[in-house]
């Protein structure tokens, strides 16, 4: 759920990640357009907001818009990737603070909840209008699902250790259900709760669930064998692929080329998630990125982690 969160022009989560500022990998003009567009989408809706209106809000010409985006769909897809990366960075910042595992997860959930409250209007609009982004949507959704799963698995493991490994899938499903339930009530039903307390509250509920499973000696309902291969790949490899996925939308590539690269990422996520990743297949898929200078370092790191040689 958190990975679908996007934002608007008044974004201000500096207290969650004080050393990080908006701008990241986007040039200032492109970022200004995204901020303007998110503001208008939240106020007027996606379908009724024109490219001319976005350009005017950003103080640039319509032609300048097309220097950075091929279309309105390309624009909003780039925005989704960008704000997805921003909230992920804030979560990572909390993880790096050296807090006790339970306190860390509680604060991470708090960061996500605060973000949802801040951009509730835009999220409501997005759900209401059912925006169709294009062929790259499936790859982006798969990326978010994988990152969300790895995020929860990482935190569950930090809290409970390897002794509860057999229960990880059930624990992740139940925690995800609790989070999504509250986020739905916040976004759709408009309830107001203390976002700063929700994380600790949900962590305590997870402790209650674990205690109950152990006391009743419950057999796991969902096992590792139920989880698709592409969920179970090397976490470092998955992180690189997801970063590559995000970068695709930041580059000035033709739509058909960007869609092709998104599909290649989906294939790589699937292949690298196997118990014995097929090295020739992965080598061949990486060639699509090796030819693009912006992805050379990622390809080299993938090759190192997977113990393969890149093809010439």
Automatic annotation (TrEMBL):
Keywords (A to Z) from UniProt: DNA-binding, Repressor
Superkingdom of source: Bacteria
Keyword Ribosomal protein: no
InterPro entries listed in its UniProt record: DNA-bd_HTH_TetR-type_CS (IPR023772), Homeodomain-like_sf (IPR009057), HTH-type_Tx_Regulator (IPR050624), HTH_TetR (IPR001647)
Signal peptide (UniProt feature, chain positions): none
Record-annotated DNA-binding residue ranges: 50-69
Keyword Cytoplasm: no
Entry-linked Gene3D superfamilies: Tetracycline Repressor, domain 2 (1.10.357.10)
Domain HTH tetR-type span(s) in chain numbering: 27-87
Record-linked PANTHER family: ACREF/ENVCD OPERON REPRESSOR-RELATED, TRANSCRIPTIONAL REGULATOR, TETR FAMILY
Protein name: TetR/AcrR family transcriptional regulator
Organism of provenance: Lentibacillus salinarum
Lineage of source species: Bacteria, Bacillati, Bacillota, Bacilli, Bacillales
């Amino acid at each position: 759920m958190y990975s679908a969160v996007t934002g608007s022009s008044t974004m201000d989560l500096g207290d969650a990640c004080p050393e990080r500022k908006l701008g990241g990998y986007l040039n200032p003009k492109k970022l200004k357009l995204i901020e303007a567009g998110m503001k208008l989408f939240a106020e007027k809706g996606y379908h009724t907001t024109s490219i001319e209106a976005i350009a005017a809000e950003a103080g640039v010409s319509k032609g300048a818009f097309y220097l950075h985006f091929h279309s309105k769909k390309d624009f909003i897809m780039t925005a989704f990737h960008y704000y997805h990366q921003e909230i992920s960075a804030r979560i990572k910042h909390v993880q790096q603070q050296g807090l006790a595992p339970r306190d860390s997860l509680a604060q991470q959930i708090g960061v996500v909840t605060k973000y949802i409250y801040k951009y509730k209007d835009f999220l409501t609009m997005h759900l209401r209008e059912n925006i169709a982004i294009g062929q790259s949507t499936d790859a982006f959704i798969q990326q978010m699902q994988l990152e969300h799963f790895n995020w929860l698995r990482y935190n569950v493991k930090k809290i409970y250790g390897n002794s509860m490994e057999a229960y990880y899938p059930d624990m992740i499903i139940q925690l995800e259900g609790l989070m999504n339930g509250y986020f739905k009530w916040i976004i759709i039903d408009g309830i107001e709760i203390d976002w700063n307390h929700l994380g600790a509250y949900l962590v305590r509920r997870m402790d209650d669930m674990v205690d109950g499973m152990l006391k009743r000696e419950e057999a796991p309902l969902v096992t590792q064998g139920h989880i698709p291969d592409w969920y179970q790949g090397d976490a470092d490899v998955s992180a690189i692929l997801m970063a590559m996925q995000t970068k695709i939308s930041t580059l000035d590539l033709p739509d058909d080329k960007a869609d092709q690269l998104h599909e290649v990422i989906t294939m790589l996520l699937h292949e690298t998630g196997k118990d014995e990743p097929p090295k020739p297949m992965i080598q061949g898929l990486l060639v699509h990125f090796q030819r693009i200078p912006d992805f050379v370092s990622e390809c080299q790191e993938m090759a190192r982690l997977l113990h393969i040689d890149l093809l010439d």
